[in-house]
Design brief:
By secondary structure, the chain is an alpha+beta fold. It has helices spanning 7-30, 67-103, 111-122, 134-142, 148-151, 177-184, 239-243, 266-277, 284-304, 320-330, and strands spanning 2-4, 36-42, 45-52, 55-64, 107-109, 128-130, 144-146, 155-159, 189-190, 197-199, 205-211, 233-235, 246-249, 252-253, 261-264. The strands form five sheets. Strands 6, 8, 9, 10, 11 and 12 form a six-stranded mixed sheet that branches. A three-stranded antiparallel sheet has the order 2-3-4, with helices on one face. Helix 8 packs antiparallel against helix 9. The chain is elongated and about 85 Å long. The two termini are 24 Å apart.
C-alpha cells in the first residue's frame, strides 16, 4: 500500500525544499524591484522618476533630486542587483538539487499535474487539490510513497471555495481559467459534454468543482465563470473538504523541482474518501480505489502524522452517523484513538 522513504531520500527532499522555499522568497523580494528609476528634468530641475516595467514613460515622480532621493536611487539599484544575484544563485542550487531528487526517485507528481499547478500558482489562483493527486502532498508530509495502484489517475480535481467571490474567471479584468490551463498546455480545451472539464490532447482532464449551494434549488451566484470559460461543477458533500483546514505541501514535480499545492486536512480526506467509497452511485472501479485510499490515509495519519490524529473532537463537520460508521470500521483491538 505504501513504503517509507529511506534516510537519503529524506535528506535530499528536506534540503531541496528548503532551497526552493528560499528561492521563492528571493523571487518575491525581487518583485519589489520591478521597473526602473531615472532622473528627469522639468522646469530646470531634476526629479527622481519611478517607471513601470514594460511601460516606457509610465510611472510617477518621487520628488526633486536631493541627498535623500539619491540615496533612494542608489538603494534601488543596489538592492535590485543583490536580489537578482541571489535569485540566480538559488536557481542554480535548485537545479542541482533537483537532479539528486530525480536520482532518488522523489519526482512523484505527474507531469500534467505539475504543469497545471505551476500555472495556477503563477496566476495566484486560490485553489485546493482534491482527489488522488492530493496523495502526493500527503506522501511528503508523512515521509512515505504510495504504491502505484493507490495514486494512479488521469485527472486533476481543482476545488474552489465559492463561499467567497472567486478572484479568477469572473471579472473582465481576470484571465479565463481555461487560459491559465492553456499556459500549462496549449492543447487544453473545454469539454463540449461536460463544461466543468478541460481536456488536453493526451486525454488528461482538469475538473473545476465546488460545493453545492444549500438549499440545492437556490442559484449559487458565486459559482460562475466568464462566457466561454469552464463551468464550475457543484457537487454534494464537498463542503466537508471546503470547511476542513487546508495544508500547504511541496511534492516534487516530474522534473525534480518542488511544487507548492494546497490540500484538505488528511483526516477530512480520509473520511470523505470513505464516504464516496460507500456511495451506491459511485463507479465500482473508483469505489474500490476510494476505499483503498481511505484505508491508507487512516494508516499513515495514525503512524506518521500525530499532529493530525483522529480524536472525538476532530472533524465535527461530518455527520454523526458517518463518524460512528467510520470509527467502527477503522478501530480495532479496543482502540479509542479514532473519534
Amino acid at each position: 500500500m505504501y513504503k517509507e522513504i529511506n534516510p537519503e531520500q529524506r535528506r535530499v527532499y528536506v534540503d531541496l525544499v528548503q532551497t526552493y522555499q528560499a528561492l521563492e522568497e528571493a523571487r518575491h523580494k525581487a518583485r519589489h524591484y520591478s521597473g526602473y528609476m531615472t532622473w528627469k528634468k522639468a522646469n530646470g530641475k531634476e526629479y527622481l522618476f519611478k517607471g513601470r516595467a514594460g511601460a516606457r514613460g509610465v510611472g510617477k515622480s518621487l520628488g526633486p533630486r536631493n541627498t535623500e532621493a539619491e540615496a533612494q536611487y542608489n538603494a534601488f539599484y543596489t538592492g535590485r542587483d543583490t536580489t537578482k544575484q541571489r535569485v540566480k544563485s538559488l536557481e542554480s542550487q535548485v537545479e542541482l538539487k533537483s537532479k539528486y531528487a530525480l536520482a532518488n526517485s522523489l519526482n512523484r507528481l505527474p507531469k500534467e499535474a505539475t504543469q497545471v499547478c505551476r500555472a495556477l500558482n503563477k496566476a495566484k489562483c486560490q485553489y485546493v487539490v482534491v482527489g488522488s493527486n492530493a496523495l502526493y502532498a500527503y506522501e511528503v508530509l508523512a515521509g512515505i510513497q504510495f504504491d502505484s495502484e493507490i495514486v494512479a489517475t488521469g485527472d486533476l480535481d481543482i476545488l474552489l471555495d465559492t463561499r467567497e467571490r472567486l478572484k479568477i474567471s469572473i471579472s473582465e479584468n481576470s484571465p479565463q481559467f481555461i487560459q491559465i490551463l492553456q499556459k500549462a498546455d496549449k492543447s487544453f480545451i473545454v469539454s463540449e459534454q461536460q463544461g466543468f472539464r478541460a481536456i488536453n490532447d493526451k486525454g488528461y482532464m482538469v475538473d473545476l468543482i465546488t460545493a453545492a449551494k444549500k438549499p440545492l434549488h437556490l442559484h449559487n451566484e458565486f459559482a460562475q465563470t466568464l462566457e466561454q470559460d469552464l463551468d464550475i461543477a457543484e457537487i454534494e458533500k464537498l463542503e466537508w473538504l471546503i470547511s476542513a483546514p487546508h495544508l500547504a505541501s511541496f511534492p516534487v514535480g516530474f522534473d525534480g523541482v518542488p511544487v507548492k499545492i494546497s490540500v484538505p486536512d488528511p483526516r477530512a480526506f480520509a473520511v470523505h474518501k470513505y464516504y464516496i467509497s460507500r456511495h451506491r452511485n459511485r463507479d465500482p472501479v473508483k469505489k474500490l480505489r476510494d476505499g483503498l485510499q481511505a484505508k491508507a490515509m487512516v494508516n499513515i495519519v495514525n503512524q506518521y502524522l500525530p499532529a493530525h490524529a483522529f480524536t472525538r473532537k476532530t472533524l465535527r463537520n461530518f455527520p454523526e452517523k458517518l463518524r460512528q460508521e467510520f470509527r467502527a470500521v477503522n478501530t480495532s483491538n479496543g482502540e479509542e484513538r479514532l473519534w
